[in-house]
Amino acid sequence: MNPLDDNAAVTLAYRGALALVTMNRPERANVIDDDSGAALAEIARRLGEQAASGQVRAVLLQARGAQFCAGGDIAGMVRAADRLGDKLDRGIPPLHDTIHRLATLPVPVVSAVGGAVGGGGIGLALCADIVLAAESMKLRGGYTAIGLTPDVGASWFLTRRVGAQRAKYIFMSNRPVSAQQALAWGLVCEVLPDAELADQALALATSLANGATAALGRVKTLVDGAMDRGLVEQLALEHRFMVASGRGAESAEGVKAFIAKRAPDFGAA
User: Fold this and answer.
1) Which one, of 228, 235, 254, 241, lies nearest residue 106 by Cα?
2) Which residues of 76-115 are buried (b: 16+ CB within 10 A; e: fewer)?
3) Against a cut of 0.70, is the pTM above it?
4) Digit-coded pLDDT (tens) for 47-70
5) How confident is the model at residue 106 (pLDDT cuts 50, 70, 90)?
6) Which residue segments constitute the domains of the chain, with CATH numbers given?
């Protein structure tokens, strides 16, 4: 199914240089099934090409309905019965390729997360650079409650945000984590009233799409790898990126705009 079709399991739309990725099966709690997995894969492929060409400068991950993504398709797992291991063995690699593509896009990614977030939905929500939550958000591991273990990067993204002890607590206890608790633990950046989440997320993502794309991409690379580098290596990369930024059109435009006391036009830089 074409993700540009409004009836696709996951849709892709554009507002200028901002790409809007929307989970589009609210009647099924936006679970990740074969259809949505295929749509996400195609979207991630397109976004990779469009971000590289400069057509897309930021991405917003969102969902229709009250729930962001309740996780995997448990009904499909039940139907697979004794073939579940084989089904997962076939389905997980392309899904993991998709989440890696989304997480490593060279542009800012924002997720707007409300309602239920569980299982693979955790990885989808937390692969974003900036996560905004509605007051209604409730995150629940869910995997071990049905004898399974994390996938879709959930263990990686969650552990990097909250640490090993809290990640194990979430995945082992399966107790729901409220939006306010998620904020206190550093899982999300901000908690907003449900009625404001969509507009606030769109405003932030739009401002990032209008920002200094090359500089924002370098910030992403610096921060995402900071915990895996030594200080000397990190300082060397900061040096290299600062020089590259200083030689680029974005810094020239930014400095001119600052002196002229006007808003910079990075899109023209």
Assistant:
1) 241
2) ebeeeeeeeeeebeebeeebeebbebbbebbbbbbbbbbb
3) yes
4) 999 999 999 999 999 999 999 999
5) very high
6) 10-209 (3.90.226.10), 213-268 (1.10.12.10)
